Amino acid sequence: MDSSSPSGAKPSLMSMPEMPRVLPFVIFLAVGALAGKAFAGSEYWMYAAKTLGVGALLWFWRRRLPEMRWAFSVEGVVVGIVIAVLWLGLSGQIPSLGRTWDLIREATGGPAAPTPKAMEAWNPVAFFQGQPLLGWAFVMIRVLGRSLVVPALEEVFYRSFMYRYIVKPEFESVAHSTFHLAAFGVTSAFFGLSHTDHWVPGLLCGMSYQWLVIRKGRLGDAMLAHAITNLVISGYAIGTNRWEFS
């Protein structure tokens, strides 16, 4: 029971500890699902809107998220760089999750799956070629969003909320250093499989970040590793013109 509520009264929905850990994540996904569907180029505007909006929401709720604190460690730096190298190195070596299921279906006698339509790379510089400043502004928002907002958002949701909630619904009482096999497996799998085009490095990523949280007993090292991973991948995408990694 919320200690600030009158005796016997149920806490309001917005006062529940789940809210600041889940709602920003849901909003980020919901807006992302609409990207590119409103008008040509809407994916760039929507990414900027969800990044700025969710970033502001996390800042507003920062006092209710005491675990959302950056921390530096050698392990965090190493994990971040290693995962980035694996992510880039395994790209194209392993079929996407959807293609993997198609191959399994065909191998077990199912009908051949249609050839998947290639997705257009996220490239605001090319889309706004007549407005280069606008194009690069969206690139910078993307880089900052992936390196600052996304690590905080996803680590709070996956490693702080989901992992601990699987251990115990009263998740705030679960120490971040707690190892729980089922929670470790489910959270890592959920994180990995949500990255459908890079599900194998996504699984390794989820396990590595969770290991950092358990080892350090805090979220900050995983946030750092996550930020470094995304920053290295973004730098590679921009420096090599490989916008599929952006």
**Secondary-structure content class:** mainly alpha
**Structural shape:** globular
Indicate how many domains the architecture comprises.
1
Percent helix, as a range, is: 55-70%
Molecular structure report:
The chain is mainly alpha-helical. It has one domain. Helices cover 63% and strands 0% of the residues. Helix 3 packs antiparallel against helix 8 and helix 3 crosses helix 9. The longest helix has 36 residues. It is globular and about 55 Å long.
Briefly characterize the structure.
The chain is mostly helical and 246 residues long. It has one domain.
Which helices and strands occur, and which strands form pairs?
Layout: H1 19-33, H2 42-60, H3 74-90, H4 97-107, H5 124-127, H6 132-167, H7 181-193, H8 199-216, H9 220-240
Keywords:
disordered N terminus; single chain; 246 residues; 9 helices
